């Protein structure tokens, strides 16, 4: 479903891709991910979206964010909001959907194909809008996890659905103990 001469842009919903990969028991090797899609077409941009807690002295995301930033990824981050819910539990909110949607619409006239790494059904209308502009859209997520990580309406709207589990051998590495140096959560 890819053409060697088409211009590609990747849009990675960091927390969604992390959760999907974890549900399939592997970690993403982002260098391999980038190389894989460079072989599939002319890769113009790779966007990675994540919210960061700014009041933490050390965020486990910081090494990943820094590595991606220095290795050809366009990083889009914003401060996460921390709050306590009605049950007294600490919650963190950091939705990046609007930023991703705006960036995808802005780049649409410069690409032939967008690959969205997310199973979030909120992106269905974005995919439809991109398609109206003549952009093909592939969605990468999984339905092999319990529960499935891909919203059915998003999968149906996409021009192509790529099962993340089928990319495991190409872009994955076994999960490491989170205390091990060099381990990057999303």
Termini Cα gap: 28 Å
Q: In angstroms, what is the radius of gyration?
A: 16 Å
Number of strands: 10
Number of helical elements: 7
CATH topology of the domain at 7-42 and 95-173: Rossmann fold
As a percent range, the share of helical residues equals: 25-40%
Percent of sequence in beta strands? 25-35%
Q: What's the shape?
A: globular
Q: In this structure, how is the largest beta sheet organized?
A: 6 strands, parallel
| CATH superfamily annotation of the domain at 7-42 and 95-173 | 5'-nuclease
Which structural category do the helix and sheet elements fall into? alpha/beta
Main CATH class of the domain at 7-42 and 95-173? Alpha Beta
Listing every helix as H and every strand as E from the N terminus to the C terminus, the arrangement reads EHEHEHEEEHEHEHEHE
Short synopsis of the structure:
With about 190 residues, the protein is α/β, with parallel strands linked by helices. Helices cover about 35% and strands about 25% of the residues.
Description:
By secondary structure, the protein is an alpha/beta fold. The chain is 34% helix and 27% strand. The chain has seven helices and ten strands. Helix 5 (124-132) links the parallel strand 7 (113-117) and strand 8 (136-141).
């Amino acid at each position: 479903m890819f053409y060697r001469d088409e211009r590609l842009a990747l849009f990675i919903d960091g927390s969604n891709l992390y959760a999907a990969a974890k549900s399939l028991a592997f970690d993403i090797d982002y260098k391999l991910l980038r190389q894989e899609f460079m072989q599939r077409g002319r890769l113009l941009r790779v966007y990675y979206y994540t919210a960061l807690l700014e009041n933490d002295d050390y965020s486990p995301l910081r090494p990943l964010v820094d590595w991606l930033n220095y290795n050809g990824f366009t990083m889009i981050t914003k401060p996460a909001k921390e709050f306590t819910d009605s049950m007294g539990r600490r919650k963190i909110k950091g939705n990046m959907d609007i930023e991703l949607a705006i960036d995808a619409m802005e780049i649409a006239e410069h690409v032939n194909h967008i690959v969205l790494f997310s199973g979030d059904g909120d992106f269905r209308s974005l995919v439809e809008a991109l398609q109206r502009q003549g952009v093909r859209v592939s969605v990468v997520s999984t339905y092999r996890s319990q529960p499935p990580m891909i919203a059915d309406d998003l999968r149906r709207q996409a021009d192509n659905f790529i099962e993340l589990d089928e990319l495991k051998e190409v872009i994955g590495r076994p999960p490491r103990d989170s205390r091990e140096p060099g381990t990057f959560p999303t």
